[in-house]
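Cross-posting from the modeling subforum.

Setting up a comparison between two proteins and wanted a second pair of eyes on the formatting. Protein 1 (sequence, then structure tokens):
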Amino acid sequence: MHEFSLATQIMESVLEFAQAHGAAEVTKVRLRVGELACVEAEQLRFCFHSITRETPLEKAVLEIEPFAATVHCLHCNYQGPPKYWEGAIAGTSIPTLQCPRCTRGAEALSGHECEIKSVQFVNSPSEASV
């Protein structure tokens, strides 16, 4: 499961950050996830909360901010949003690496990223930091 390994990497990075900053508890983790990263937000939240029990992240809210992909076509020089497949199987629009203008292959300029945007934590019960 892709989301489980991502949740593990996020947890390890945030725990390392929290320890370096003397955090007693992490209250919020904000992620920025591109639409080409193939991350199912609810599965990622479930995995994250499953593995953070009995850690300083146990009560942390996981906010996931999706962002749109950008593609570039080397054939017609298109740059912008990807073409979306309106597949009946998926029931939702799926971004592709097909140029929406000339239908040839395009390269992704952005949209594969999954990054920690911010971490909110508490040093002591009466103090909060971002």
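Protein 2 (same layout):
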Amino acid sequence: MNARISAIDYYLPENTLTNADLSAEFPEWSVEKIARKTGITNRHVAADDEFSSDLAVRAAERLFARGSIDPGAVDYLLLVTQSPDYFLPSTAALVHERLGLRSNAGATDVSLGCSGFIYALGLAKGLIESEQASTVLVVTADTYTKFLNPQDKSVRTIFGDGASATLITADGTADSLYAFSYGTDGSGAGHLLVPHGGLRPGEVLSPESAPDRRGLATTAYDLFMNGAEIFNFTIRTVPGLVDSVMAKAGLAVDDVDLFVFHQANKFMLEHLRTRLGIPAEKFPILMADSGNTVSGTIPIALAMAVESGILQRGMTLLLVGFGVGLSWAGSAVTW
């Protein structure tokens, strides 16, 4: 049996943060400037009492409500998050219970960010094709806005909260999840991290992440991102990743209907698209109303593309994730 994506859905919190809201806080950044640099006009923000498990449950319940599958049929839950409710227990255990999954269904967290969805697809494929499971629920859920220092406009303009739910099932037809390629560079881990809230001070890994070095009064977590280094890493790594996936899949640009990249920010995505020679009509940028939702950007973009009619059955896709870790992954998909 091969693995295939059989259903997808997503959930965005009700609270929003618009460019006008941000411009009111930071008058030196106009609404137009924020939109031009990021490609984002609105971000959804989890409420104070709303956490990753809550978003995950809402996304999965939306998928179940569409009649895609009964929760009792799920053999394994893969929960991708880097903003867990607790150090322990796993967020997957909390979601497993709230969704009413079987007690003999596996559930585990996958601690990856921007590349996490593709890693989880690879894990789901392995579970199914090794006959450990026939139905895997892949859920992404991140509430990065809880990590942000309210004074740090550089990251507050980018990140939003959200969750997705993707059903991976066994299928007897041709392989539709294939040509996976992965990579990791831990030497760049200090370029994107949450320095506070864990067991080891972040300044050990990245001295420049200290809030006083950034002119900030510390809050609980103080997420730090070295935007220039993340951009350089992306430009250095992603073209080779795309080449690797396409070579494994035996595809050329003309063979791919849609290239769905991690929705980091519009400036970075347009730079990559131009460098790779991908036509604009094959390169959806679908983050204007959601922002960078980290592990959820690719599946949320896929679900939005289905809603808008951009993505249709039978299309060939190239999925590309890259970011925190540093980590990257890509795969080909027949939809």
